[in-house]
Design a protein that fits this description.
Layout lengths: L1 H20 L16 H11 L8 H16 L3 E11 L3 E12 L5 E8 L14 H17 L1 H5 L8 E8 L15 H12 L18 E8 L8 E3 L5 H16 L10 E5 L9 H4 L5 E5 L19 H21 L12
Parallel strand pairs: 3-4, 3-5, 5-8, 6-7
Antiparallel strand pairs: 1-2, 2-4
The protein binds 2-acetamido-2-deoxy-beta-D-glucopyranose (NAG) (2 copies) and zinc ion.
EC number: 2.3.2.5
Protein name: Glutaminyl-peptide cyclotransferase
Family: Belongs to the glutaminyl-peptide cyclotransferase family.
Length: about 350
């Protein structure tokens, strides 16, 4: 019984992948409801692009900004606050910020980034533009540009909700290790795996809130010139392929700038440790959108506004917005990309 149900869910997942692979390219565009709003992107980035080491004033300001932005975009917000002792700084207060549209839905599409900036004793002005102010501004901008759709057709759907997750404490305080890194994501994955799923009684549904996440899409290290994104996980390669196709279609219709092809139709090979690790360990499918190789300014004082590459940022925003829109408009039944259940 269990096995055959898994099998059915797998088939549904595969059908969804095929559907993505055979994507009709019809409604891809940058016209309403998918038009750019770069003024909004810029003001979001400006608000986030400050030193925001956990426990600092900038950190508190950005945290408040994220909550207020989510509320004004119609999201129900959750702040997952906790205290923990960390190397160098001692006890600090972390806070993951989460926004939900359709919190009552059976499943969710989760989009994530981290909003803390790395602590450097010798560089208190470090702003982490690509790491990850730009990815966080991209998530807010995706919600802003899709807002009329999210507020109308998408609103009150029961099959799918949208989660935006702004993780805190991704950065190591001393040296990256399993324990000195991804503080916020470890806390949230634990919390969501212990929270019950109200749909658990329905046949075949998991008993854990965390399993309502169909896929966690994690953005990191974006905003530098000519980024390249390959596919890290087989179970989300269909979604990665749809990004490749959306980029192709937008380029063919003259809606992208320059000629860098950022989404590569190939496996990344290897694993890059990041906020997705605790979710992956709880069996959540992950689409990891991290530029590899990393931007040359990574973890240096040059990871700032002056070294951002605007055509790449605008292109990413356009492709990503179409991807999210496609996921939502094509979704009707639960998508299960898990190879096996625990
Ligand atoms: C956003 O900021 C970039 C970089 O400063 C600038 O080139 C662009 O014109 C700005 N866009 C808007 C709409 O203000
Ligand atoms: C997805 O596939 C990767 C291997 O590509 C595996 O490590 C991971 O556990 C899989 N996750 C799920 C949820 O199936
Ligand atoms: Zn970093």
């Amino acid at each position: 019984m269990k096995a055959s149900l898994d099998y059915i869910l797998l088939i549904v997942g595969l059908m969804a992948l095929v559907d993505y692979a055979l994507a009709q390219q019809a409604n891809l565009h940058t016209a309403p409801p998918l038009a750019d709003d770069e003024a909004h992107f810029n003001s979001s980035l400006e608000a986030i692009l400050v030193p925001r080491v956990v426990g600092s004033r900038g950190h508190q300001q950005v945290r408040n900004y994220l909550v207020n932005s989510l509320k004004s975009l119609g999201f129900q917000t959750e702040v997952d606050e906790f205290k923990e002792r960390v190397p160098i700084l001692g006890e600090v207060t972390f806070a993951n910020v989460i926004g939900y549209i359709n919190p009552q839905a059976q499943n969710y599409l989760a989009l994530a980034c981290h909003y803390d900036s790395k602590y450097f004793a010798e560089d208190p002005g470090f702003v982490g533009a690509t790491d990850s102010a730009v990815p966080c501004a991209m998530l807010l901008n995706t919600a802003k540009t899709l807002n009329s759709y999210l507020a109308q057709q998408f609103r009150n759907r029961n099959d799918l909700g949208l989660m935006l997750i702004f993780f805190d404490g991704e950065e190591a305080f001393r040296d990256w290790s399993r324990t000195d890194s991804v503080y916020g994501s470890r806390h949230l994955a634990r919390k969501y795996s212990q929270m019950p799923n109200p749909f658990a009684t329905a046949q075949g549904r998991s008993s854990r809130h965390i399993d309502r996440i169909e896929v966690l899409v994690l953005l990191d290290l974006i905003g530098a010139r000519n980024p390249k994104f390959a596919s890290f996980f087989e179970n989300t390669s269909g979604l990665h392929t749809s990004l490749v196709q959306i980029e192709q279609t937008l380029r063919a219709s003259g809606q992208l700038e320059g000629n860098n092809k950022m989404f590569l139709n190939r496996p990344a090979g290897g694993f890059t440790d990041d906020d997705h690790r605790p979710f992956l360990e709880e069996n959540v499918p992950v689409l990891h959108l991290i530029a590899t190789p990393f931007p040359t300014q990574w973890h240096t004082p040059n990871d700032n506004a002056a070294n951002l590459h605007w055509p790449s940022i605008r292109n990413f925003n356009r492709i990503f917005r179409n991807f999210v829109y496609q996921y939502m408009t094509r979704h009707s039944v639960p998508v299960d990309l898990r190879f096996r259940h625990k």
